[in-house]
Amino acid sequence: MPEMTMLGWFHTVSGVAAVLCGFYALYTDKVIAVEKASGRLYTYLTLLVAGSALAIYNQGGFGVGHILAVLTLIALASGVSMEKTKLFGSSSKYLQALAYTSTLLFHMIPAITDFLRRLPVGDPFIDSFEDPLLLNFYIAFLLIFVAGIIAQMCWLKRQAN
Hints:
- The chain is mainly α.
- Helix content is 74%, strand content 0%.
- Helix 3 packs antiparallel against helix 4 (92-118).
- The N and C termini lie far apart (52 Å).
- The relative contact order is 0.12.
């Protein structure tokens, strides 16, 4: 695994801060929204993290991390658009929740991959992208994401009634 550059450290620290803000926003507000301070900070940090991810090329070119960064930028733009314009009427709040919460999933995939491939230093937990431990984390994150989206949709529906 290549050594961490200054950009890598900046990206990692910003990513951890973004994830903490995102989960805090979900815990306190049930949804991520730029109208709330925690949601606004989350979106700014996520924008910063996705942008910096596009500048990291220590794995040999444009890869999965870059694709996730692009998807994150698309999801952020979609979430903000749904929140600000209500383009799809009453469905916009559901699409907003889906878009913003998707960005959390897009944060977690490279985060756990990098964590397991780097630590402990000198003897990392995994040495392959196909390692069952890594794949199990991906499955767990996907299941948590689906459960979280369902919970948000139910909460939003109750708010509408």
